[in-house]
Amino acid sequence: MTYTEDFFIYGYSNQNDDLVQLIDSYTKENVNYIKTTLGFDGLPADPNNPAGSNLDGIIYRQKGPNLYYKRVFENEINVLWFKAKAGGVASDWEAFQTAHFFASKTNHKTILIPETCDLDFGGASQSFGSNITLKFDGGTIKNAILTGGQTMIIAAPYHIFDNVTLDGSWKTPDNFAYPEWFGTIANDKTSVDLKVSLEKLNVFWNIKFGHGEYFSKLGEIPVRHFEGTSRKLSNITILLDETNQQIKYGLCLGEYEGLVLSPHTRSEYNTLKEIIVRTDSTVRKTHYSGVVMGNAHMGRIEDITVLQNTPEMQLSKSELEFLLEDVENNYKMANIGVEFRGCSELCIINNLETYSDVGIGFNTTLIDSSQIQGVDFPSIYNFYSACGIFGLASVFFGAPNVFNLTMKGIQSWAQGMYGLYSCKSPAGMYTSLMHCEINNVRVEQLTQLKDSNNRTRSTSIYIDEQDNIENFIINNIRFSGLSNGLYLGGAVRGYFEINNVSIGGDNVALQYFIQTNHSEYSSFAVKMRNVTADMNYPILHNNGTVIDNHYYEKSPVAPDKINYHDVTVLRKTNAIFKKEIDGTRKFVQTDVSPSQQWVKLYHGHIKNLNPSLNYEIWDADEDFTVFNIEAIASSFYAKATMTLFKDGSHTNEPYDSNKIHIGETSNIQSEKINIVYENSTGFWFLINTLTNKEVQYNIEGLIN
Questions:
Q1: Which residues share a beta bridge with 345?
Q2: Any idea where the domains of the chain sit in the sequence?
Q3: What is 575-703's CATH topology?
C-alpha cells in the first residue's frame, strides 16, 4: 500500500478514486481518504485564499489541481498525524500548533496524545481556544507553558506533565485532577514531592488521591478540595527528619493564622475527605499539627484519620511533666492532630480519628488585643481520639476564643492527661468561650499520674479561669473512672451547665469529682443536673454557694452512690436574686454577724441621697422593697417585716420591740437587733448589739 506523504506528491500516481486506502507515514496505521470539494470550514476548498487556506495539509489535503481529499476518522485527532515526533524533537510544538489550529476551527475538539508520544515544547507557550480537549492515552507533554480556556484534560492518574506550567481555566470530566499528572506516584518516595505536584495543579480546585501512600518532605500543603478513594486506602504522609524541622504543619485549609480582618486571604469550601494523614519523623518533633483549619469559611474535614503516634511524635512522661508545670506557655510542644489556627467560620468536622498528643486544638492566634475574632460556629460530629499514654488532651483550647461550638454524635476521648482542657485567658486579652455545646462524650483511660497524696492528677474536663464562659453546656458525659471529673477555674461572668453525668471505673482516690471556683466579684453560675457519683468523691465549691433546694439524693438501690438532681452554684455572696415573676424581683440575703458588727441591708438605700458615693441606684421602675428579716442566735429568735419606699419613707409590721429596734443609727439600742438608717450614707443597716452572741440573718426581699 502507499504511504500518505507519497500519495499526495504531485505526479506520484494518477489515482483519483473517490476512496483511497493508504498507510499514515508517521503512525504507520491504515487510513482512508475520500474525495471532497470542501475544506475544513465547510466552504469550497480554496488553497489560495488570501485569508488563509481551508486545507490544513493533514486532514484536508490537495492531490492535484481541483482534486481534494478528506481523511476519514471519527472524532479525536492524533497529534502524531501532524508530524509530531517522539523523543523531544523540536518540531513537536509546531506539530501540536497545527493540530490545535485544526481543532479550534472544526468540531473535532479532542487532541489525542497517544502512548510513546512525548511532546517536547522546548519551553514554548501554548494558549488554547475555547472547549479544546487534551486526551492523554499514554503520552506526555514537557517543557511548556499551557494556558487553558475552559480546556478539558482527559487522563488516567499517571505522569503526563514534566516541567509544565498550567495557567488559565481547566476542567476534567469528573472535576478532579490527580497528583500523578505532575509526577507524584503513590508508594514511591523517590517521585516528585506531593507539595510540588499540588502547587502545579493549582488551577484545579478538586484533587483526587488513589490507592496508596503519597509522600511529602516539604509539608505545609494548602488544601483546596482533596478527596481520597477511601480512608483505608488513600494516605498522605509527611516525612520529617533533621533537615526539615521548621515545618509547622502537614496540611492547611485556608490561610495559616489568617484573620477575618484580612478577608482577601480567606478561602471558602476547602475540603479534606477520605484520607489518612500521617506524619513520620526520624528525630523528635514538637510544635506540629497534622491538619490545620486556617481562616477557612465553610471548610470541611470528613472521614479523616490523623496519625502522629510514633515515639518521635509523642510526648514522653518527662516531657508531659515539664509541660504541666506551665501549660499556658509549654503546651505548644505537644503535637496536634487537627488544629483550628486562624479565624475560621461555619466549618464542619465529621468522622475524625486522631492519634496525637492533642486530638483537636482550638489555638486561635492572638497576637494583640485588636484580634477580637476567633473560631466561630465550628461543628464536630463523631470524633475519636487516642492521645497516647502521656498525651495532653483530646480537646484543647490554647487561646480560648471560640464561639458557637457544637460537638455531637459519637465523642470518644481516650488517653492523655485530660479529656478536655482549656488554658487560662491570656493576660491583657479578653477571650471567651461562648455558646458551646458538647454532647454524648465518653472519656476513658486517662494518664495515671499521682500527686504526693497518691491521688490521681488527670481530669476529664479541666477549664481554667476565663474572662467569659457564656452558655457552655455539656450533655450526656461519662467521666473517666480513674481520674478527676470536672474542674472549673471560674469566670468573670457566664454560665456553665453539665447534665446527665456519671463516672465509671473503680473507686480510686481523687483530688475532686467536681470542683468549681468563684471569684469575689464574678457573676458566674454553674448548673448541674442528674450527676451521679460515688459518695466518697469530693464535690468542692471554692467560694461558691449552692442555692438550689434539691441538692442531692442517696440512691436506695446503690447506697454508695449519690445523685445531684438539680444544683446551681454561684459565688458566695450575701444576696442572690432568685427569680422574676410579673415584674417582681425576689432575692435572698444571708449573713453572719458577730456582736457590734454592722451589716448593710441589700437594696436598702435612698436614691441619689449621696451621688458622690458609688452605691446602687434604684431603677426607674422600682418603687419599694419589702424585707422579711429573721435573726437567729443562741436562745434567740426575732422577726420583722419592713417596707422601704424610693422616697426614703418606710413602714413596718408589728414586731417584738424587746428584741428588735427600728430607727436611726443615732439611737441604737443595746441587747437588740437594730434595723437602723444612717443619714450620712442613705443606707439601712442591721446592727447586732447582743452581748457575746453571733447572729445568723436570713432575709427574703421583694423589689417592686
A1: 297, 376
A2: 2-72, 575-703
A3: Immunoglobulin-like (2.60.40)
